[in-house]
């Protein structure tokens, strides 16, 4: 069953939901004793803020002519820089393997020092 609704009624309903969310969030934060309850109130207020942005977007778009800004934001791309070349015939995979071996040996030495039998032998 479809019920026709005008654009004005829809905007009023959106505004009422935003106002209800702000009031509910403020009340929840105001009476909360725990931080978890205050976080729930913050979620209500954050959702209401998003509702305000959705409600105000057509007006902001018309006022600031966002059609010129948004396409340029959408065309931004991240271009990573290539890794530096390793000289003297060494490859980056060998460097990674050597780094992993040295860190593994450091961890192994640390674990050997932490063993109970190693301390007793070292002190005697």
From TrEMBL:
Keywords: Membrane, Transmembrane, Transmembrane helix. Signal peptide: none annotated. InterPro entries: Kinocilin. It comes from Equus przewalskii (Przewalski's horse). It comes from the Eukaryota. This is Kinocilin. Residues 80-124 are annotated as: Disordered. The chain crosses the membrane at residues 12-31, 37-60. It holds the Pfam family Kinocilin. The keyword Kinase does not apply.
